[in-house]
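Working notes for the structural subgroup meeting. M.R. asked for a predicted model of this chain before we commit to crystallization trials. I am recording the input and output together here so anyone reviewing the notebook later can reproduce the run.

Input as submitted:
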Amino acid sequence: MNQNDVFGTAEWLCAAGTGADGAAGFSVLRSRFTVSNIRSAVLSVLGLGFFHCYLNGREITEDLFLPLSTDYEPRECHPAGETLTGHRIYVPQYDVTQFLREGENVLALHFGGGWYTFDDERYGDPKAIYRLTVQTGDGTEEFVSSRRDKIGASFVREYYFTQYEQQDYTAFDEKALTEDFDDRLWSYAETAKPLQTEYLFSDCPADRAGELQPAVCIAKTEDAAYYDAGCNCSALPVFRITAKKGETVTVLFSEERRADGTLDMKFHHGQRFSFVSDGKERIVQPMFTWFAFRYFSVSGAAEPIGVRPVHSDVPVTSEFQCSRETLNWLYRTYLSTQLSNMHTGIPSDCPHLERRGYTGDGQLACHAAMDMLDAQAFYRKWMEDIGDCQDRCSGHVQYTAPYTHSGGGPGGWGCAIVEVPYQYYRHYGDKEPLVRFYAQMKRYLDYLEAHSVNELVASDKEGEWCLGDWCAPNSVVLPAAFVNTCFYIRSLDRMIEIACLTGNERDIPAFEERLRKKRMAVTAAYFNTWDGNFIGGLQGANAMAVDLGLGDERTYRNLVACYSRLGRYDTGIFGTEIVTRVLFEHGDGELAARLLLSDDAISFEGMRRAGATSLWEYWPNTCKERSHNHPMFGAAAACLFDYLLGIRQKEGSAGYSEPVIAPVLVDALECVRGKRTLPAGEVSVSYVKKDGFADFVIRLPEKLSADFSCGACRTVLHGGENRIRVDLSQK
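Returned structure, recorded in token form:
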């Protein structure tokens, strides 16, 4: 759709001189209109970057940070020498009947900030547009944004999307957001440049703020009071201001604290919220950004009421609990971390420093997220972002979607254009994205082919990063060409299946020939024929090879021997998930569980003992410390559901239409229970070991059956409750 399709005769509006000083440029747009005999009313509205909309002083929605972040329109800072495939903007639309009244009404639109006006990679200046369609007893009336609307400055004065927001109430009348305000002295709005984009609607969930959680004072100094919010998450802190007129209150945030309760500024990440008081007692919170923290300090006359966790409104549809707290912690902590990194329709790498939708991090964690969350609409939107950020000419896929200049690599990142739609299909049974993106998948594989040397993916775009794995405990030793070619091989395998599903069987011989050459090249370059190892078996190299059917019988034996001896992970973000999954898949669940449960410092338990309530970007006690809120390592948490609970599906099926319940029993666990919500409904699995047996209770949705396999026990489960006893001596 184009602008006229959605907004009719409405105009994009802005304030005079918007953006000229490079500052935030936040504005409040006001419109008065009269209507009677109201039957219904629908409002289509956009304010860039984000907006809050009020009708007669009442905010029309609890949705936050809209519109969803996309590659809104072409801009100068798009990747050099490339033309992105698409540009879109999603239009929020609301039934606002309940907010209108007979007679005069006032619409107020508070807008600015966000990715659209982000200084580093700016699309454009703040602007707004709306169309209100009212059905009355006499017909249809429309009220649209126009130069008759008034506009004034916001109380948001200093702003940098990823770091800080300042609110100044000394020259702002809060009645400007209500109907009871005299705006005659305000200027008329000016026409802004329309977007060059596609206008769409989306069911991707917006951000919502949760229930208010308490914050506890843990220390005081002459300059500040220090508070603990209880866990590290993305949130909106809420304060009661009691400062005198002109006084400034400053809040600083950190993921960690020092022993004396003050903030560890190494994990501050530049995050700051401040407000200038007008002398009135008031309740305030950030309006156009969120913060990611556990601890915060308050300097000035204000008291925290609490914090409200904020993230995309994606429901948790899973449960997991077992007899080992390390795994319980991993489940809870991965979920919290993943949700903290779901904002504005993007699965981000971290909710503070970068907030970007890295294609590497996103494809790695999407399987776990789809296992545990109702994330179908969320990932349906993000797949469009990945498709949009592909270069029309070369087929190159960017490292982030929507595109912002960042680092990554040609396999583990760009192959998201294949992997995310594939995982989406497997989880939800919807192959439409496979059809939709098939041609773009092929173009990206052609790009990888063009950037191969001696059949190995050796480079990405000139002048950009070319990573393989990332965040290993020490320096990454796996050659980038090995890792990226492995991702290419996996994508070729996926494409053969996808070609069958989408009616593109003619492409299969070419995919198979590429597979043959790439497999031979990886073997020739990295396989040690004298001992059966790939790259000495370091950092999960053997697991990556086994996962693709490379090597010989020694390769897997070496993998088992290596991690039996080491007893912990030595892997980066990709290797950790692959090692864990490959061990489970090949019948070595005991060893996989040992790695998940390792009490070495370099482990999930090491993070837990260090007090982590969200997953860290780097393993504890290793080469680097940075963000303490990254979901990447949590990709291995999918194994809790796929193997320890055993909720899987038959090969070749999708959407769990043919589920398999095949729990892997390990000595370290005495009991396990949990559930997942599949397209057909909720499936729960629990067992308790006692007297040499494991007693299972498994519940399936009505009319759904499943094959059960555990040890020597094989049977068919039916809808409702199933009770099974498994002899542990035959597991």
